[in-house]
Design a protein that fits this description.
440 residues; alpha+beta; four-stranded mixed beta sheet; globular; Alpha-Beta Plaits; Ubiquitin-like (UB roll)
């Protein structure tokens, strides 16, 4: 659906077709115009070995029916032919069997990286595509309690989904926008058949990928966001929010396979410019709630515990500042930065866990840089790097502390060495010298 929206919004179909050809995995695109609940949209289908990509519920139904239909067709067309296949026929049968095997068992991250490395696709798009695969792999590893290196992408390893991910990365780059913002996602409902069984919608990997995202369900009994789609939007979108203030330049609609009565099964991509000031154009803005409480009689050990509890429950930030309070008592101001919808939860925690008799609250506007995660390899394992950018230019990067702390403890290596190696690996991967940009 995202590929259709890209084409409808102005990305050249030739760009996506050339990307598919560059992968060399035997796929092609079919682009058509369709209606979905009265909305005209662009539909991009992926064809592999004469078969069209389908939603995984439909693919599972077709796969169950395929042995019977194949057997009936064989009986009708060649009832008495028991001759051996020619070498050419055997070769085609082998290729078909190989493709079916890949569709069923998927590819590992190493094989996917190898395919992308050999493809004539821009370095930026390759990094984005790999980041999407890694995001999905980390979610699958978390759900199934397995190392990332052993994860095989059941749906994503299939040729059609490889095309979706790599074309999404190339198409997003071709848009030439500074930031992608995603509105709340309608995840659907009901049950869906996956490689590991039948699960409630949204699927476990989708839930894992959409942590911190704004989601809802309209009650439609269908899977509206797949793990692959969730990985794409998680990687490409800098944030999730309501429709931002902007001057609309153009828009595009991408169609899904199914046509639900009264529910347009489309993705809309709207492109435009935000406010006139340079800061507004290059940074994101959102509303946050600030909670504060003065504490002069709380055990310092409890103060640290409360901070941990608030962060674990999803606070954007928590910090304390020493102050001199009435009667010259030394005290602390506890400050919590929160999403507006979480104010009640954090207020309850502050009252329950501290000695305060009151909590102050105010609303503030926060501006943030676009940010994303990249993973780099160190001698002791992978470390995530948080990368911040403004107007497409990287301004800050920093290794994830928790990743470095875990590696340092597991391998008995100084923490500062792990962090240094992670930064060096990031700079090497991006072809930068140490002075090119500033670590956070």
């Amino acid at each position: 659906m995202f590929l259709g929206a890209l084409v409808d919004a102005g990305v050249s179909p030739q760009t996506l077709e050339e990307t598919v050809a560059a992968l060399g995995i035997g796929a092609r695109l079919e682009i058509s115009r369709v209606l979905r609940s009265g909305i005209s949209a662009t539909k991009v289908d992926v064809w592999v070995d004469g078969e069209k990509d389908l939603p995984r519920e439909a693919y599972g139904e077709q796969k169950q029916q395929r042995p019977e239909s194949h057997e009936a067709s064989h009986a009708e067309q060649q009832p008495h032919d028991h001759s051996h296949p020619s070498p050419g026929q055997a070769s085609r049968a082998s290729a078909s069997a190989t493709l079916e095997h890949q569709h069923s068992h998927g590819r590992g991250l190493t094989e996917i990286r190898s395919i992308l490395s050999a493809a004539s696709v821009s370095t930026g798009a390759k990094k984005t595509a790999i980041a999407i695969f890694e995001a999905l792999g980390q979610a699958e590893a978390q759900i199934h309690n397995t190392p990332l290196a052993t994860v095989h992408f059941h749906e994503v390893g299939a040729v059609d989904a490889m095309v979706d991910i790599v074309c999404a990365a190339v198409g997003a780059e071709a848009l030439g926008v500074d930031e992608i913002i995603c509105s709340p996602l309608n995840v659907g409902g009901g049950m869906v058949s996956c490689a590991h069984g039948t699960f409630p919608v949204p699927a476990p990997a989708t839930v894992e990928l959409l942590k911190d995202a704004l989601v809802y369900s309209s009650g439609l009994e269908a899977e509206l966001v797949t793990p692959t789609g969730a990985a794409i939007v998680k990687t490409l979108a800098s944030r999730f929010s309501a429709f931002p203030e902007m001057k609309i330049a153009r828009s595009g609609y991408g169609a899904g396979t199914r046509d639900f009565p009264g529910h347009p099964n489309v993705v809309r991509l709207t492109i435009g410019e935000t406010g006139s000031s340079a800061l507004a154009a290059n940074t994101a803005s959102d509303k946050i709630s600030v909670l504060e409480a003065n504490l002069d009689d709380l055990n310092p050990q409890v103060f640290g515990y409360v901070m941990d509890q608030l962060l674990d429950q999803g606070a954007l930030d928590v910090f304390g500042m020493p102050v001199q309070m009435k009667k010259n008592r030394p005290g602390m101001v506890l400050t919590v930065l929160s999403r507006p919808q979480d104010v009640g939860k954090f207020t309850q925690i502050i009252f329950a866990e501290t000695t305060t008799l009151g909590v102050r609250q105010r609303e503030e506007t926060r501006r943030t840089l676009a940010r994303r995660w990249e993973s780099v390899a160190t001698p002791w394992g992978e470390v995530r790097i948080k990368v911040a950018s403004m107007n497409g230019t990287i301004t800050n990067y920093a290794p994830e502390y928790e990743d470095c702390r875990r590696i340092a403890a597991e391998h008995h290596v100084p923490l500062k060495r792990v962090m240094g190696e992670a930064v060096e690996a990031y700079l090497r991967f991006n072809g930068k010298e140490k002075g090119d940009s500033s670590p956070a």
